[in-house]
């Protein structure tokens, strides 16, 4: 599969993100509270028309898939930026929430910003 359709955290970001509630090998030193990253994306008319035509015959809507991957990555970037701005170096219990409306698709990444250190 092309890297255009992959996800995951940008390795250059210094904030560790985990979907788990704890982090094996680390100790939570301080909980900084909830953080989130939000983005809303809209498709252009030509792309939406192409997706509508593709949906009639079936198959993956690659333009829509790419848009959602890009949106999730942007939401993650905003989430980690917010955690870092509060002094955090980790986000625990990270989740995504997605909703689609008439104007676009909203992607929200949220979790708990923490300061963690290696367990001794």
From TrEMBL:
Similarity comment: Belongs to the UPF0145 family.
Pfam name, any one: YbjQ_1
Name of the protein this chain belongs to: UPF0145 protein GCM10009838_34670
